TrEMBL record:
DNA-binding listed as a keyword: no
UniProt region (Disordered), positions on chain: 218-239
Cellular component per GO, a single term: membrane
Highest taxon of source: Eukaryota
Ligase in keyword set: no
Annotated keywords: GTP-binding, Nucleotide-binding
Transmembrane segments: none
Protein name: Uncharacterized protein
Amino acid sequence: MSKKEKLIRICVLGASFSGKSTLCNRFINNNFEWIYEPTIEVGIFRKLINITEDEEHKQYCMMQIEDLFPINHPYLQMPKGTNSDVDNMMSYYDLVLGNKRSGEKKKSNEKVLFKETFIHGYMYIYDMNSLASLEELEKVIEYVHIREEKEAGKKKSGLAAKILVGTKKDICPQQSPIPANKIEQLKKKYNLLSRKVSALTNSEVKEVFLDLARNAMDRSSGADGGQDSESEEESSGFFSFLGCGKREKEGEKEKSGCLIS
């Protein structure tokens, strides 16, 4: 990657069947998969794009796109400590939604394929034909918003760019169960960009990634360079925010689970 090409890390979040992996596949490979395969681990992709789309005044950025497991994955409904897979998945989500780095040091001889950097943009995915997919997403949007407000000026990561993306607009969009004013309220409350896309017809797929990349580039160039301290004032993890993983006080009983929805 040339020094002139800025790395933009994008995390794609959404419920199962929302179409986030299909959207990523269409953008990265220009391909549409008819067979649904649930996301069981993080998919990481890179694509070099010219965000100006101007052949005379090109400005390239390398998009590192991370397609996360669904926000309603069964493991995320389980209590912390159930097993290592559950804990690892919850820890990864806390890192992503908290916009923190793991702090793990790579061995000197270990080849680093994907750079662990701060997240520059969140892509919030919902199915336009499923109100539940949007409702499950709202807690994630709310947490990131509250966490960023609380940590304003304290972290180098600053405010990430965010876009709310409605998928499957090719399926009777006029009959969507989601009220139009609901989307407008979320956009205004959380300062979100938004688009409606179709991975099937390839409608506005490239545009949604360009919107987020451009906004992330603008925010990154204007970052104030906070202290990035792990102070006590910083927000607790996402699952603590939801009230998950706590033991009952009496007799160390079974840990409580948590439903994101």
